[in-house]
Amino acid sequence: MGSFSIWHWAIVIVVAALLFGGKGKISNLMGDAAKGIKAFREGLKDDDKAGPSDGVSSLPRTDAEKEELKR
User: Fold this and answer.
1) pLDDT per residue over 15-59, tens digit each?
2) CB of 20 within 8 A of CB of 27?
3) Among 14, 37, 39, which residue's Cα sits nearest to residue 26?
């Protein structure tokens, strides 16, 4: 009971072969997921660079800021 039998190892090997082997659907799906994660991270980096450089918000927050925009 404490150790794995040959059937346990056979099941593990079959599952690993399905996940990582050849040109199967699962390996293509995992590759697409990795590409999506990479594109998301690059998008986050681009957003940081494209942010406002002077620190001014695009929306007024106080009444004084609203009055200043009206002038």
Assistant:
1) 888 777 766 677 787 888 899 999 999 888 876 666 555 555 566
2) yes
3) 14
Find where tokens 């494209």 sit: 50
Please tell me the distance from the alpha carbon of residue 59 to that of residue 66, in angstroms, as a whole number.
Answer: 9
3-state DSSP call for residue 59? coil
**Alpha-carbon separation of residue 34 from 1, 13, 17, 37, 48 (angstroms):** 38, 23, 19, 5, 22
**Whether the model pTM is above 0.90:** no
Chain centroid, CA 22 distance in Å: 25
